Each structure stands twice: as structure tokens, then as C-alpha cells.
Structure prediction request, 378 residues.
Amino acid sequence: MSRLLIVLLSVMLSITAAHADHHIPNLGEKANEFKDDGKKAHKREGMSHAASLIMQRKMHPELLSHKRDKTLRQGVRGGYTQLQKCVDCHTSVDKNGEHIPVNAPDQFCSTCHEKVGVSLDCFSCHRTTPAEDM
Amino acid sequence: MKELNRREFIKNTTVATASVATVASGISLTTFAADPKESDPVTNEKRWGMLIDANKLSEVDIDDMVNACQEEQGWGGEVHSTGDQKSGWIKKVKVRDTATQRVSNLALMCQHCEEPPCVDVCPTNASMKREDGIVLVDKHRCIGCRYCMMACPYDARSFVHEDLTDQKEHMPRGKGTVESCTMCVHKVDKGEQPACAQAVSSDAVIFGDLLDPTSNIHQTLKNVQSTQIRADLNLNTGVRYSGI
Prediction:
């Protein structure tokens, strides 16, 4: 009986561990469509797709803050790195067809940021949903 | 090896420095000669400015300008702010001559000074002037101390007192930061006119490059008597007024 209990407990533990490890972030509506179409997002020249994704995951704060200074202070607009482009693809839509803020619980940004305990301050000023005319 | 005396050494060094400078200026000349692209930084070859003719500008025009600014930049919808706390990027100002009782109406906003006092006092470099003369607040750096609001002679800046949502995509605004007229920098960078200038159908508001001799604003300023508000402060404002 006790052996059965140990087996049961270990199975439960491994399920919990597996669940925690495969925490898939909510990619958002457009990003999911993009992925389902088999297209590769964030592909950078001279890098494999996997390496590009890892770079995006690790470096997105640096990429964004570098670009924000250039845009605001030097007027360099356009280009690949724009916060509004992140928001456009990575927001989800609720049952009523309304966009859910990208920093709301269980949405794209907050999934990882909550897990690693890093607060994000972009959206105290920046818009959290795609613009109305999108 | 020939030994150099002091005089010869200085002569040779000067020649070498001069040739480097020539090459360097040649390079920069070719860079500036190319057409400016969206990805190029703005330069001080332009200075954006505005000329407001108080004689041609009716009160309705000023209201239109304020409404266009609110719609473009998304301010004015603050629910919890009261009185002076409310944002005012552009204001209607009435000036009455005490002797003649003549009333002029002005649209007053950030004057985009060449020597902005708000930039001088900012402890974090959040208040800044772009190379092309547009004065902005870098909200990434703004700590909300409001020194700039004290320093501005035109009362052009506002402080956001409440949490905001649904900001305009091009105009992030948030609680605890200072904001003011950006001369619609997002539109200007695309080659468009600021929203307030577009809202007035007559030529009461002219926007353009003050340094470009072919621009409408440059030529008008050359021919028409105009003034800067508080010109005694020597701030050399980018926004000029005629008819006051």
C-alpha cells in the first residue's frame, strides 16, 4: 500500500514539474496565426531562426531601450524594433472581439515577467492594445 | 635620422591636422548632401517653427486648434483631475489692452525655445531639445519633479495626475510625468503639418522650417512684423506671433 502511495506521489510530482517547465506563453492572436502559417517571426540575417528567437527573448529590453532613445532624441523612425509592433502581434482577443491589454495577467508580457519576477514599466505610458484603426 | 626642432615639429603637425580636417569635412558634406531618410537622425539644418497671426485668428479657430490637438494627442479626457491639474497642451489666452480695451485672442502652447529654460533646469535630462529645435519630454527619464513647469515662462507644461489607458499609439502618456506640445513631432517626421496648423483653414497659422529661405514661414517672417512673447527673455522662440 505504501509503495502504491509513493508511486502515486511521484507521478503527481512529475506532472507538476512537467507542467511548470512547459509553461507556454500566450503568444497572442496575430503571432499565433503567423506561427500556424509556418512563417518565422523575428528572423534575423545571419542567424538561425532558433538563435534569433533566443536573442529576442534575452535581449528585447536592450533592443527596445536602444531604439527608444534614437527615436525620441534623434527622430529616427521606422525600422524593425518598435514597441507598437510587439503589441500589434502579441495581443489576444476576448469573446466579444475586444483586444485584451498585452500586460494583463496571463497575457504575452506578463506570463514570463511574472514567472521571473521582473516588473515591466512600458505600459504605464504606452498603449497596451493595437490602435483602433488596426 | 634628422632631428626636428620645435618649430618644424609644430609646422608638420599643423599640416597633418589640417589635411585630416579637410577629409573629415568632405565626408560630412557628402552625408548631408544626400536626401534625408526616415532612418536618418534629424539635423540642425532645419529649425521647425510656427507663425500665428492674431489678426486672422478667430476665437472659433483657436477652439478648433485646441480640439484638433486633443484629438491628435489624446489629452483632455482625464476624469479624476480637477482645475489646474487638467492637461493643457495648447490654451486660448485673451489679452486686453488696458488703455484701448482692445482684446486679442492667442493660442499659446510650448514656444519651442532655442534656449529652453525647461531643459536647463531638468535634473535628469528628460527635458530635451531635438537638433531641429523641437522641445520634448523624454518620459523614460522624467521623474515628475516638475521643475520644468516652474521654469517655463509660458506655463506650457502639464503634469499627469492619474492612471491613463488607451493612449494614442504615437503619444505615450502616463501618471507621474510631465507633458507638453510636441509640435506633432510624429507627423512632422513624416513630412506632415502639426494638427493645430491643419485645423485652421486660413493662413493664420503657418508651420515650416525657419531656416529654409524658400519656405512660406521664412518669407512671411521676413516681410511681416512679428514678435516673440516675452522676447525680453532672449529665448528665441520657434513660435512667433504677428498682430499682437
